[in-house]
User: Fold this.
Amino acid sequence: MTSRIEKLVDQMTLEEQVSLLSGEDFWSLPAISRLGIGKLRVTDGPNGARGGGSLIGGVKSAAFPVGIALGATWNVGLLEEIGVALAEEVKSKGAHVSLAPTVNLHRTVSNGRNFECYSEDPILTAKLAVGYIGGLQSQRVSATIKHFVGNESEIERTTISSEIDERALRELYLVPFEHAVKDAGTWGIMSSYNRLNGTYTSENQWLLDQVLRNEWRYDGIVMSDWFGSHATAPTVNAGLDLEMPGPARDRGEKLVAAVEAGEVSRDTVRIRVLNILRLMERTGALDDRSAFEEKAEDRAEHRALIRRAGAEGAVLLKNADDILPLVAQGTIAVIGPNARTAQIMGGGSAQLNPHYRVSPWDGLAAALGVERLRYAEGALNNRFEPAVTGSMAVDYFNNATLTGEPVFSERLNGGEVMWFYPPGGKVDLTGFSARLGATFTPEHSGAHNVGVYAAGYARVLVDGVVIADASAAHWQPGRTYFEEGCDEVVGLVEMTAGRSYEVVVEFVSKPARVLGISALHVGIGRPLGDEAIADAVAVARDAETAIVFVGRNGEWDTEGSDLTSIALPGRQDELIRAVAAANPRTIVVLQTGGPIEMPWLGEVAAVLEAWYPGQEAGNAIADVLTGAAGPGGRLPQTFPIKWADHPAQSQDREVYPGLDGKVRYEEGVFIGYRHYERHGIAPLFPFGFGLGYTSFALDDLEVDASGFEADGAVTVSVTVENTGKRPGSEVVQLYISDPEASVPRPGRELKAFEKVFLGPGEKLRITLPLDARAFAFYRVEAKHWLVEPGTFVVRVAQNAADEGLTAEISRQNRLMLPV
Ligand code: BGC
Assistant:
């Protein structure tokens, strides 16, 4: 019987078919009203649904914890709940498809998008992604798992070739996608920007056709990352269904011509269109006649879920003398750059305009009463000068010289602008200039930094004098605006408190590279000196307990820019040491999107890593500090003592950050904890590690290997007991090793896990089933998975460096598994 979508595709002209294979605009596909086909809309992304428009401003949305915070929860059921809630968010923005989750692995500790990805481990990532996708799609909202594949860094991200051998691909980087297809039935996949072993993933026939469709039997769509498709026939033929965003660049008329020239067959076009129509049918977009509307729905149940998830992802790394949870009744010094500024998310396409942001100060004030709190900022951790606030008058010119009558004038709010759409419909974004003017009245007298960075040429004048110059003569490509912008250029100016200064920015657009965005950031800030640390020390000395809120923010942990160090930015290390010397009850709350070095670890009483937990940040952190919630997180990524210990740190630039257009994944299957274990390098904190407010013991390991010889299946059972005095959660982690393998294999690989919640004294027997793949490695030449004869070690443990409980099982024969 011919299905509805087959009938539809066969009623279309070639032009109509082709029209569905590109976006119409940034976030949607064209409708075909003649055939009653509705409009499919997509929205970013992993930690909330931003809706259309640009990355700044826009309709408000709920901000959920970022990927690494979700990774730290190790709670598949929670991710499913979050998926359901996010589906409601996506619908509130009139969309059908979420551009999430991000499942690239933590190959390095410096990836700008480390925060967006769950883990360094493929199985943890895969199982969490399956939960998340299941939640989304249960509400008929499509997931778009991304970025397929090998997008583990932001350096030269739109052109670099990730050189990854097939064994590492199959055993690590493809695994989350494979589970998403086979176990969650994902409806969408986004190809990555990078090339894979020389070929763009958006035109990689091996990846999109052989592996994804032939081996895994995928029937959803593959869309390109934004501006990440670079050809007509090669992308369509390789398996890329949708070129995004629109309007069409390499498709449209070019694709019609390619079909007419015989470079793409009509059958191939038909298959691609059927994939799109299937997605529209699955999500309801096919029949969606509702008027497009974006709503800000600030729901109480989402607030509660975000708060709970934030606490579940917080990882307690140190807790000397059980200083936490806070039971003391005295005053608390609340110190640090992240104390009063809520760091809720990372930067780039995952960012959104949150309903609100709760800072740690606000969270603690609500929990403990503001009268117990004392504050000192202590140090700064911003990467860029803070954007100027208030109204800016803008005049636009359709020339590069800021001359003549403006074609349009408007007022904008604040010193950050991204031009996605032509202002007033009159400005030619392919070649324009703009003059922006604001008044700045400093609160303090003294030296101020004036900074500017732009995707385009820009310079800043204060009272008519050029202070920061990134105009054409000085502009250098840097790590801002998705690699389209320059690094920040900063100039110094003396200012007097209370006086008004006229700040003018002259902007000239620049020929587009890949994304074609024009954007600008102008900021003014005041450097903090020694006295800021001295003030913090004084506040800490007088308080019973000192909590230092330090870390990074979404300027550092951001798409488009890798980190150049994993030390805390600015003078934060110094601040922590000075506060700890003044008050032995010093607790450090970290907020970062990945590992940092902690040279002061031995000097402080406690350390809590809270990541970027979304709009409820301060409440979730306060819940953990006060014991209203347990710290439920376990590290989804190893924290090294120093950056140099990490596998991707090498003298060889080709290994990282890349050389001559290539980044070579030399470590193969030995990433993350697999590397530390292999080389006997002690990490600062191992993968899977995290303390709670109670203790747990594992006992009675039992392995049923009766089916192991026949089909490779094994069942592992263990008893978990809460041996402490408070309720809490533990993550039971099951690692496998194959010490007698014929190829080098990791000494430990996570193959299953379960998070359990137990009251004091409670016990639970849990069962973890394993299939043959848990014991197999991939043989590239033979093109199959192999379980070798011999002995395997089954280990249940509380983290990757824990000896835990072990049992040995063995088999006589080889077991080959097809791809
Ligand atoms: C990102 C994607 C994102 C897309 C649309 C790209 O820069 O890599 O993850 O979904 O933009 O915003």
